[in-house]
């Protein structure tokens, strides 16, 4: 079902190349059928949300989409889960404990070998810690200039991405034969996780040596929705004063709304919450239906991570705080009074 | 691959528009205005320089099993990069390379080109540890360190929040930020590390150190010295302002807030 679509897109591209002789830079890439490899991230056999955004972006490119997953015993777990996703041509799986932690020193050569074997024109991964660490290494091995954290696809070689903490939007054309892309999760959604029946095929395994040893991890455990994909986010900043107040005020409000908890850099640096909850240029990008924040002034770096939210609400005692310039609704007031009152009234 | 028992550190740094400045897109929609705009050392690169100096200090106090032989700072850009390198040397780097690539509105050579150049520097200067920022706050690409590690075939640790030299054989443990928490990795030198905000708090250069830095060696280089050309694979089609977001005004109290959120369909 996808193949005719791919042929159409390639034909269209060839036609465009013929009628406009000035476009010559990427004719060699256009001469090949567009074919995309979506690199999936899995943890303990479960697909991570970055995998779905990689597939969503891959599907937007228009050609057939192959998914790739590697780790311990993945064929019965994450690869089987991926095979159910609607619109995938096939899932290439490599079962090897050595890839379980997704460490780039051996995962990059593994990917490069499978990319070359499959002759893909586009390689897509989510812009998660996994994708950010792995894909540039892959791009360098392929001698390709990666395009990072894209928020839009204009054509098979033209992509949109924010620069300068989202203060400017760059539209860029890649002249590389293989396009290596990481994609922003909040910009690529809507994958149907059921109804597909892709075949699971064995990938090739170069068994490259692993130069790093995985020692340990400490993950913040939370029953709340994942910050990156939650439909509601409640964030706190320096105005909360300390960890106890953050937990006393922000957490119950988040729980009342079924929201994920986020924080500004100031709140993270002051130790109110774990680093992984930081929203902003150097933390997570979120674009929920509702972003409600208290005690956050709205520095450029914070706005970079949340200004694509559908509705922004802010509580701050400083009427001139920059956050009010982007908030759809602002309440100037003492958060120590307003937040508990809001929580109580929302419970009713 | 370790010839002596010391650390020979390379710290690439980038001169970028200061983090506190709100960049403006130029009229031609080809980039952002840079003329007359305050520039500084990329914040993540400041953290890299600081970490290199801390490794030296802990080596000197015998708190680390390896001593630092040399810290080389490097920047590729126009003439004003020299100021950035003097700052790095005032903080404590021993010497600097300024790779003159001229001034360009489009952010300079691409990460792959920079990674190839750094590969050349690593070889010619016999470097065994490269500390880079996790991303430059202008292009926000976050690629150079990983690309360099790939080209060199070295292990990499990205977004480091703790770097610890474990033994005299060059075993290094790095704690780094991942989604949902932190992960600790162990690798042997040579190694590429990219630094995250929480690795350290960079020191200010003191006046006597700024004076001393003026006497430290700063060598001019070109990409060609490392066998690299400034080939561009990405073509900027346009740079535009992000869609403006209009604040929706203020409400008097919590009831007003709830009412407005219901009106907007957010509750």
UniProtKB/TrEMBL annotation, chain A:
<feature type="binding site">
    <location>
        <position position="238"/>
    </location>
    <ligand>
        <name>FAD</name>
    </ligand>
</feature>
<comment type="subunit">
    <text>Heterodimer of an alpha and a beta subunit.</text>
</comment>
<dbReference type="GO" id="GO:0033539">
    <property type="term" value="P:fatty acid beta-oxidation using acyl-CoA dehydrogenase"/>
</dbReference>
<protein>
    <recommendedName>
        <fullName>Probable electron transfer flavoprotein subunit alpha</fullName>
    </recommendedName>
</protein>
<keyword id="KW-0274">FAD</keyword>
<feature type="binding site">
    <location>
        <begin position="264"/>
        <end position="265"/>
    </location>
    <ligand>
        <name>FAD</name>
    </ligand>
</feature>
<keyword id="KW-0249">Electron transport</keyword>
<dbReference type="InterPro" id="IPR029035">
    <property type="entry name" value="DHS-like_NAD/FAD-binding_dom"/>
</dbReference>
<dbReference type="InterPro" id="IPR014730">
    <property type="entry name" value="ETF_a/b_N"/>
</dbReference>
<keyword id="KW-0496">Mitochondrion</keyword>
<dbReference type="Pfam" id="PF00766">
    <property type="entry name" value="ETF_alpha"/>
</dbReference>
<dbReference type="Pfam" id="PF01012">
    <property type="entry name" value="ETF"/>
</dbReference>
<feature type="binding site">
    <location>
        <begin position="278"/>
        <end position="282"/>
    </location>
    <ligand>
        <name>FAD</name>
    </ligand>
</feature>
<comment type="similarity">
    <text>Belongs to the ETF alpha-subunit/FixB family.</text>
</comment>
<feature type="binding site">
    <location>
        <position position="316"/>
    </location>
    <ligand>
        <name>FAD</name>
    </ligand>
</feature>
<dbReference type="GO" id="GO:0009055">
    <property type="term" value="F:electron transfer activity"/>
</dbReference>
<dbReference type="InterPro" id="IPR014729">
    <property type="entry name" value="Rossmann-like_a/b/a_fold"/>
</dbReference>
<dbReference type="GO" id="GO:0005759">
    <property type="term" value="C:mitochondrial matrix"/>
</dbReference>
<feature type="domain" description="Electron transfer flavoprotein alpha/beta-subunit N-terminal">
    <location>
        <begin position="36"/>
        <end position="218"/>
    </location>
</feature>
<dbReference type="InterPro" id="IPR001308">
    <property type="entry name" value="ETF_a/FixB"/>
</dbReference>
<feature type="binding site">
    <location>
        <begin position="295"/>
        <end position="302"/>
    </location>
    <ligand>
        <name>FAD</name>
    </ligand>
</feature>
<dbReference type="GO" id="GO:0050660">
    <property type="term" value="F:flavin adenine dinucleotide binding"/>
</dbReference>
<keyword id="KW-0813">Transport</keyword>
<comment type="function">
    <text>The electron transfer flavoprotein serves as a specific electron acceptor for several dehydrogenases, including five acyl-CoA dehydrogenases, glutaryl-CoA and sarcosine dehydrogenase. It transfers the electrons to the main mitochondrial respiratory chain via ETF-ubiquinone oxidoreductase (ETF dehydrogenase).</text>
</comment>
<keyword id="KW-0285">Flavoprotein</keyword>
<dbReference type="InterPro" id="IPR014731">
    <property type="entry name" value="ETF_asu_C"/>
</dbReference>
<dbReference type="InterPro" id="IPR033947">
    <property type="entry name" value="ETF_alpha_N"/>
</dbReference>
